[in-house]
Amino acid sequence: MLATTSLAWGCASAKTEANAPATADASVAATTQAAPAPAEISRLEVSESAPGARVAIGAQQALVWTTFRDANGDLVIDLPNSRPADGLSDQAFQAGLVASVRVSGQGTPERPLTRVRITTREPAEHRLDVQPDGLAIE
Q1: Which of 23, 79, 116, 136 has the fewest other C-beta atoms within 10 Å?
Q2: Full-model pTM
Q3: Does the N-terminal peptide bond of residue 38 adopt cis geometry, omega within 30 degrees of 0?
């Protein structure tokens, strides 16, 4: 009986709240960490090369991306946490594989997204290469 009482008293006297503030502090710190600043998409350059073309997307930092083809066969590149620079505009071409490159800013101020849509005159495969200051699509 004495052992049982001591054990119960020892458990009852343990401070259960000692771990609670540390957990609360960790969750507050995790939610208040600043998100990385959005990348600014500063340039779109298109150059024709045999047998295809190259589209360079320039930024001041490395980019995160996803790509897909839409129902029209256009290559769509989504760049989360980025915004197109003021003055960055769509481009259209009279000749060559690439017919147009369109850029738009979407998302919200807290979660910006840049969408680049590349339209080609004929079906084409692509390769995306990571650059320190953007992406290159060939």
Answers
A1: 23
A2: 0.74
A3: no
**Tens-digit pLDDT string for the chain (138 aa):** 333 333 333 444 444 444 444 455 554 455 556 678 999 999 999 999 878 899 999 999 889 999 999 999 999 999 999 999 999 999 999 999 999 999 999 999 999 999 999 999 999 999 999 998 999 999
Closest CA to 44 of 93, 7, 6, 94: 93
How crowded is residue 104: how many other Cβ atoms within 10 Å of its Cβ? 12
C-alpha 88/C-alpha 41 separation (Å) is 8
Chain Cα centroid distance, residue 136: 16
